[in-house]
Amino acid sequence: MPSAVPELPIVPADTRALRRGARALLVRVFERDPMWRRLVRWAWARTLVLRYYYGRAVRVAHAEGRIDVVPDASGRLLAAAVWFIPSAGAEDTRTWHLEAVVVDENARGKSLGSRLLRHALEAIDAEGAAATLDASTPDSQRLYQRYDFHPIGPVPVQPWARDLKMRREPR
User: Fold this and answer.
1) Which domains does the chain have, with CATH numbers?
2) Signal sequence: where (predicted)?
């Protein structure tokens, strides 16, 4: 009888090494993202922009949000999710924003992204908060719809696709 593969733990990125690993994973994954490819055409420049952008996102999320990661047995990060709480606005409801959820290309198909989403959404639901995100591909839009996120703006039309803003109401 085959032995069950143990489920890898989701841990908070509460050390500098884990936060650096999260930033590196975000940069690697988003170097190929359609939105980032449209915004910054040259690969070398895109890498620099992504390092700055996600370095700042990780710092803000560490201070004012949450960063969840999935390391393998050796400590290498396979997946990460970066959430923060935007500045208070007109909304009465506390709202978390998913800046990014990424899975290393060699770890795809193991439901790590879905596990990270469920993990954070359980905590968000427990505090009665809403959640928002920007979906950059049709595949990610479908994934987020499975977790009750709904479009809150116009649906992008191909070939000039752009991010779709989505929201999940409090539970």
Assistant:
1) 11-168 (3.40.630.30)
2) none
